[in-house]
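Worked problem 6 (solution included).
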Amino acid sequence: MVHIETILQRVSSRILGRTVPKSERLKFVWRLPLRQNFPSLYAPENRQQKQKDVKRMLFALEPPDAKLDITEKSYEAVFMHRPFDLHVRSFPDSYILWSHDEFDNNMTVGYNSALAADLQLLQPLREVYWTNRKGAERRIGMVGCLDHLQSYGQYRRHVEQLFDGTEASKANGVPQVQTVAVMGAFNPDLLHRMKSEHNVDLYITGQVRKAALQVAKDLKIAVIAVGHQRCEAYGLQALVQSMKKHGNNSIQAEAKTDLDLDILLFGTLSTSK
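Solution. The predicted structure is:
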């Protein structure tokens, strides 16, 4: 078994990309708010003062469909990306960990060094920041280069394999790609910036926007929109893999036993191998 604080530390460190100080690791939240950034943890009353060890854990994007009965699995802990419609009685004896905004920012399309490696982008990556209408600035993406020119079709197939499909893809007259932008938003302003500041060949994003597609065509920037849910699924699977890798050293060294990890994606429950 693994102590819940160790799990929270590993999950939050992977999502935030940094080590979380001990004073910030264990934050019990007794009610589930509609919006809450990570690290956040709900603990049922019977676990607030009692045993805090976890043997079996579920990772899911959102609460399971009512038709899917997983109560017999007896999960001691659940990680959920979108817990907003979750009723805690669905998991009456489970710790519930969640992250929405930080998960989207760091685990899906945007600035994501693990994704950059999967996309074969070379270091160093160039950070892209975006200032919203309220004047707040946040990191929204990255620009990187492949080590050689690749045909658009060949590279698109690589992306499709990585995300198990795409929502939309347009070559826009670009036969080969080398400079790639990976962005957490898709709008005309960002497209113009990527062309003028980085001369990108390809723009990878999540959800497609029709108005931006026309601008990309005019600027001759190839586009691959992998789809919102595929982005999230990629991030969730990456988080589970991170937990497994860590389980082979410090988690198991501390607990002396394995942590069983299940993953729920698109209505299908499976055990992570």
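Discussion: The chain has two domains: 2-103+232-271, 110-225.
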